[in-house]
Records
---
Amino acid sequence: MEHFSACTLDCPDVCSTIVEIDEQGNTSIKGNPAHPVTQGYTCKKGKHALARINAPDRITTPLMRDGATFAPVSWEKALNAIANKISTLRSTPERMLHVRGFGFHGVLADTSRYLFGQLEASSTHGALCDNAIIESCILDFGELDQNSYTELLNADCIVNWGRDVLRSSIHTAALLKDAQNNGCQLISISPVSPEEGMRIHVSNTHIQIRPGTDRFLAAAIIRRLSEAGIPNTILNRTSNGSEFLAFIKKLDEKKLLDACGIRSEELNTLVEIYGKENCAVSSILGWGLQRYTYGGENVRYINALSMLSGNIGKKGAGSYGGVSTGRNFDSTWRSGSKTARKLLTPKLADEILDAGDIEFLWCDGTNAVNQTPEANKMAKAFNTIDMVVVVDAFMNDTAKRADIILPCALIYEREDILGSYFHNYIQHSAKVITPRGEARADYDIIKDLANRLSIPFPERDEILTTALNTKPITNLTKNPLEKIRRQGFLPTDWPTVAFKDMQFKHPDGKYRFPDPVLHDELKASVDFPLSLLSLINKDFEHSQIPADKQQEQLKAYVYPATLTQSNIEPDAQAYIVSPIGKIQVQVVADTSVHPEAVIVRRGGWMMFNRCPNTIIEAHVTDIGWNAAYYSQRVRLEPIEQ
Ligand SMILES: Nc1nc2c(c(=O)[nH]1)N[C@H]1C(S)=C(S)[C@@H](COP(=O)(O)OP(=O)(O)OC[C@H]3O[C@@H](n4cnc5c(=O)[nH]c(N)nc54)[C@H](O)[C@@H]3O)O[C@H]1N2
Ligand SMILES: Nc1nc2c(c(=O)[nH]1)N[C@H]1C(S)=C(S)[C@@H](COP(=O)(O)OP(=O)(O)OC[C@H]3O[C@@H](n4cnc5c(=O)[nH]c(N)nc54)[C@H](O)[C@@H]3O)O[C@H]1N2
Ligand SMILES: [Mo]
């Protein structure tokens, strides 16, 4: 029997899937061939869902701390203990904190937000993921929007500014290949060259940039374009174009190129592409380049380049920064929510310790101790809280620090609907399997808790029906809930070209350039000369990695000459040292890595000594209050054998 469903992982592709359960009860997952983006295949991390559902170490009963270990308890006992604790804090809601991640996406996934909003508990602001891109695009365009993904196939050239499509989004990678086969030129810009073992880009030309410095390269291209003259038809659509260009013209090209470590021939290539008449250039903004102290500025200079080169509001062109996953859904069902105060996500450890009065924490959809900078301090902060509740299915670094663990149903064991931050379809993630053991869907857990607290709670179908009642959906589909449940996904009604006629969502309808300033990247010091890039894993989503895949030591990929300078032999043991700690790694010599960078794959757990966040400080981006993980400076130290 085949069932339509969808992947709820935090991923741009948001695949529509088909779950097949045969007569013997064997289950398999494949991509839905009818979905225009999924096209019949899914990636390894998506397929991995079944292994997680059936994992022997999965938590399937509520657990309560009993000294250094946990003991199974009934739902009744666990939820009563939580409800009692919340009841004592109703008059001081700021002492309750809700931390939610995006380990699972969806509309119903937001019900915990609704409940803690009704309680007016403390919550968080800022992000670990992509808020620097989001907020920067909103500052530039007035809203977060981009051309449809299908427009990439109309591009003459696609410049991929640091998106690792082969790992993060295999359907984008396939699209780029198709574009290339149609004769589109592909250029990639990143600190990792595609030539060697790290193979990350589908491109004809690769430009290797110093970590965190894309804004200098974008400024250098704009400077050349401005010398040739920017048409008034473009400048008239901006609110501060003359001021911005006056600043750009005063910049020194050599200094800009030195700052980003780019050769003038490479600049010439980019100037030729962005400056060519009748050449539609699509610029893809990677999430990597915004994870820096001036990550927002990086994004804004690339957007400025798209704008000034005439590539906004045009077919086959544009800046691809993403769209909001929630833009197709009505969220009024959770209106009326309030929050006592907001703690800053990238600095959550210090924020909890400084507040000093948090007595209750509810953590869902995130391995927050592991994924937030200063992971050891996060662990300490969790230990200061009287009752920590973690809703998860695995005994990860966060669950280990809980007082009560509530076992959640996983993907395919619960229903939800969700959008994508890359394409415009909405998907139905159907429940096709009964939750294992005593696991329950987050919605059911939250509703049960709300009942115990006498807080009225909307029904599942009421939420889904309200959420689907928006113009982009109802313009194309009547009875959307019934239809999406039947066919697995729905199209939505968006123009294929964003910002048509160069109309922007600012009050004056015009585009905004950043302030006329270019910030230097944090200086490397003699003690900490290298940038630590903690990049994603191909096969797993962030920390959702099985324990048996974490038994090997963490590897660090380093340029050979950089290893020599650090007196370390290839394949030797070494420490990566930062101002807050060190982590033992096996080094791998890799000529594809920028000489000033060290690359590790993120997501490994602290308990296996594989968590880079134990040595990453809580840097915050200039825009969007995002974690600036890649601004971490480190050195390599040999370990005498
Ligand atoms: N397999 C898998 N897929 C995922 C995820 C996962 O964990 N696993 N996570 C999902 C999520 S939540 C996200 S946010 C995305 C992340 O997706 P990506 O942003 O693609 O992933 P990262 O590995 O963070 O960053 C990728 C790239 O940024 C480049 N980069 C680093 N610094 C710079 C710079 O200064 N300039 C430029 N131009 N490039 C730079 C690196 O070389 C690398 O190729 O992936 C999503 N998809
Ligand atoms: N060093 C470093 N760290 C980073 C980054 C970096 O660049 N460098 N980037 C980060 C980025 S891009 C992101 S998006 C964040 C991600 O950080 P997190 O949001 O913490 O993501 P995951 O590690 O995937 O953890 C998600 C958790 O949700 C659980 N889960 C899955 N399904 C469900 C469900 O239905 N219900 C509940 N309650 N739980 C569920 C999983 O078991 C898992 O433990 O981390 C960031 N961390
Ligand atoms: Mo992310």
---
Amino acid sequence: MKDLVSPTPPPPIIQNRHSEIRELFQRYVVPSYGRFDLVLSHGAGSYVWDVSGKRYLDLGGGIAVCSLGHSNPEITEAIVEQSRRLVHVSNLYYQEPQGRLAMALTQCIAPGKIFFCNSGAEANEGLYKVARKFGHDSGRFEILTAFNSFHGRTLGGISATGQEKVKKGFEPMIPGFRHIPFNDLQAAHDALSPSTAAILIEGIQGEGGITPATPEYLLGLRRLCNEKGLLLFIDAVQCGHFRSGRFQSYQRILEGVSGGESFVPDGISMAKSLGGGFPIGAFWLREAVHGVNLADSLSAGTHGTTFGGTPLGCAVALKILEVIDRDSLADHVRVTGDWLQSAIQDLANRFPNVVRAPRGLGFMLGIELQEADQVPSFSTSQTPPSLQVVHRLHEAGVLTIPSGNQIVRLLPALNLPRAQAEEGITLITKVIQSFA
Ligand SMILES: *Cc1c(COP(=O)(O)O)cnc(C)c1O
């Protein structure tokens, strides 16, 4: 018989895999991300498992990307089916999926056209070029963006982003961007210069902490841009694609608001949820803007990207649109999102010394926490409250996304079942209680 008090047993193989994989990152992957100490291996729906077999309820959705959850069989089938026919062809040629997706997206917005690219930052880059082209002959080039915005990590993206932390160390910025306070119409008015060509805002600020634009701000910016002949662009990379319960967040924000039905921006950038995890980005341009056809302003040879709108990416995005429509996921997001929001409000009522308030709309929600110095259990650590909560949620088996120091974001799959939303709230409640 074996000695029961033998030296410490060898670590399970799983543990080796965890540290082995981490080791690979430490040695070979550029350390530009602050990563959590989780090594994920597979997923199904809104659950993911780490390499040790622990299950997590994923309420972060890959930062608003996995619109139909993980390993969705219909997406898998779309990938398999399309990849049997054609994965990629150059944009030197026509192919059906790109044309059909462009039509489907345009029909969700207003008359216009779509350019396909591969990411959110790249979609915004396209909009910057459209603004420059638009203003070129009149000597206008400047784009106003909001403080606390986020527009991506390319050089143009960090120049456009209204947060110092993304710019630091990479100066000089690309000229032609200035920042204005979000939801402050007068500030936008006052900031205009003879060089201003466009205003770009998020419908709901995401990285900046889940702040929806107000109806007055949207309508006021539209009026201002009409008066001054400027372009109004919406960065819908995070807040778009039914995350708010409508295709675009401005549609939801302006519901029931007088004049809201006719609100249309001049350009919209998209990515994240569009491909459900398959990388694809796009921007939409409106047809008739200030007497020009903006949708035709990028003529042949003026813009492009090798991988933009591959048959594979477009087939996946088409499948996602089909499932969202068939399963009425917009309504589901609205109803379940409202329920989640009221559950977070209950948390704020029950534990007012930990949770301040819910934020956001639909499945773009934030749990706003109290300041560290007001909560004894937060102030015992230097770690920001948002990270402390996210860490403890990991222990409890839930994935969420911190946003700044104070906000924990929920950006779940659009098909998160109600029962799993309830399960999430039960676990979140336990964790919040542990800080109270
Ligand atoms: C994520 C994000 C981007 C950048 O998208 P990438 O695909 O990471 O380049 C741009 N704008 C907003 C609002 C985002 O949330």
